[in-house]
């Protein structure tokens, strides 16, 4: 299915996760369920944080930012992936690089916001008396906008470098979306510089964010050891446990996908890791916070109660 030498594609074909017909149908239902769970769960958190004045705090502002990014990162890849379960999945060159851009902007921003959330927990636990003065509304907005700005710059560099490559080694992307590594494999030019820059920049950036997270948690653990009250220690630990689970889910899959050369074997493994990264993890994040956070659960119960009361009044009228 490759084009003759010397011709350049005007589109790419994205491959499904599997070519087994019955498994494609099962995966469509599976992916659709998690995508629906993702949208409903994260929209619920956004609504709760916006409407409930008790959730107007830095912690929940960052959580709402994470929920928004989770919806965006899935929406940039999942709808197109679901199309591929039923028909041959064509995507134009502009569409491919647009998808690549948005996926990496949202993925990068999520990593930074998760690191910022770790810093927020460090300030809340280790410097509780100064928390209000440090994590002001202006500071939170600056941190989130800074996250977006840095990720926009890094992603733009990667996408521009990839889009300038000549593509004449076929038009079949061995992935369910346009990611950098499988796309540049189709280039008929030396891509070692591209691969090195992707690995180096992503590696350095991820390492810095991860080290910041680990330092935050090291200081938190040191502080917890000094807390004599078991109740106080338990309360402090509960505020971090949900976030730490998300850290493992995010950085575990991100490391699997982007650290390493773009070989045939790694791309196959990357497809599985990317499935977790784009479908499962964004859907689990709101569940993790909802089930383990008392304030979110309380606000959700109040929202449900108000909705039920409103529906009863409408029926009576």
UniProtKB/TrEMBL annotation:
- Membrane topology, record value: Multi-pass membrane protein
* PROSITE patterns in UniProt: G_PROTEIN_RECEP_F1_1, G_PROTEIN_RECEP_F1_2
Question: Per the record, a Pfam family?
Answer: 7tm_4
PANTHER family in UniProt: OLFACTORY RECEPTOR
Tell me one GO molecular function of this protein.
Answer: olfactory receptor activity
Q: Which organism is it from?
A: Eleutherodactylus coqui
Give the main localization category. membrane
Name of the protein described by the UniProt record: Olfactory receptor
User: What InterPro entries would the database entry show?
Assistant: GPCR_Rhodpsn, GPCR_Rhodpsn_7TM, Olfact_rcpt, Olfactory_GPCR
Record has Transmembrane helix as a keyword: yes
Signal peptide start-end? none
- Transmembrane residue ranges: 26-48, 60-78, 98-119, 140-161, 196-220, 241-260, 272-291
Q: Write out the annotated subcellular location.
A: Cell membrane
């Amino acid at each position: 299915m490759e084009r003759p030498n010397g011709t350049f594609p005007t589109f790419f074909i994205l491959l499904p996760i599997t070519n087994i017909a019955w498994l494609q149908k099962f995966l469509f239902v599976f992916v659709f369920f998690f995508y629906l769970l993702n949208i409903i769960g994260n929209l619920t958190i956004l609504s709760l944080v916006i409407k409930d004045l008790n959730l107007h705090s830095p912690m929940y502002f960052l959580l709402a930012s994470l929920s928004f990014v989770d919806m965006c990162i899935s929406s940039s890849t999942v709808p197109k992936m679901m199309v591929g379960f039923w028909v041959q999945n064509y995507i134009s060159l502009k569409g491919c690089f647009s998808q690549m851009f948005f996926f990496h902007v949202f993925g990068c921003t999520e990593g930074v916001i998760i690191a910022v959330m770790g810093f927020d927990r460090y300030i809340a636990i280790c410097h509780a008396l100064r928390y209000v003065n440090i994590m002001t509304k202006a500071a939170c907005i600056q941190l989130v906008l800074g996250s977006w700005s840095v990720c926009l710059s890094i992603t733009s560099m990667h996408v521009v470098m990839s889009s300038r490559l000549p593509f004449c080694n076929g038009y079949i992307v061995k992935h369910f979306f346009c990611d950098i590594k499988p796309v540049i494999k189709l280039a008929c030019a030396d891509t070692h510089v591209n691969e090195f820059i992707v690995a180096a920049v992503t590696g350095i950036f991820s390492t810095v964010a991860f080290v910041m997270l680990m330092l935050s948690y090291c200081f938190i653990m040191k502080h917890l050891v000094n807390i004599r009250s078991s109740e106080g220690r338990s309360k402090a630990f509960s505020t971090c446990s949900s976030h730490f689970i998300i850290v493992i889910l995010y950085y575990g899959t991100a490391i699997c996908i982007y650290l390493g050369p773009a070989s045939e074997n790694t791309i196959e493994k990357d497809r599985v890791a990317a499935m977790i990264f784009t479908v499962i993890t964004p859907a689990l994040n709101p569940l993790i916070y909802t089930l383990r956070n008392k304030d979110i659960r309380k606000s959700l119960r109040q929202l449900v109660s108000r909705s039920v009361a409103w529906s009863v009044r409408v029926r009576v009228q």
